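Example pasted here:
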Amino acid sequence: MNFLAHIFLSGDNDLVKIGNFMADSIRGHSYEVYPEEIQKGILLHRSIDNFTDMHHVYRQSKHRLHKKYGHYSGVIMDIFYDHFLAKNWNTYSNENLEDYADNFYHLLKEHYDILTERIKGMMPYMIARNWFVSYATIDGLQIIMFQMDHRTKNRVNMHESMVELQQYYTEFEHEFTLFFEELRQHCIDKLKELNG
């Protein structure tokens, strides 16, 4: 799953959201230097990634992309799944997506000192281009894919995956819906475990 899903699945705790959001840039046991709620977010993120990577529905989605995009098929699929979350946001949240995004960007600014250097470097672009809201439309997604190509030095031309997205749109959306219900329950259970 990509950024929007990770944050959404963190529940209402602001520090858990931040920990989950920046977890990719924290390796091994180095998370233990952070406050307890941030640690929970990092551990939740890792649990989401493990659950996702092993899930047969997610693997089915990713398989359509693997031949052409190889290792990057997972990166692309994570972004596609964020698209379906953003597009169907009102099914999952009572809060407007624009407000949700603004509130999270504000949260990052409030807790700037605790963020990793990678997140600090990414933040201005994410906020200026409003990534979370951009996920909701095909046009917004296309721009994000071009940005991903730039970041990965055009190794596999991820923007071309928009062809597969439109070709298998119904299948991808159906798979996301099935998968996300199971992932949501997994996260509820994991947060209960982390909160002891």
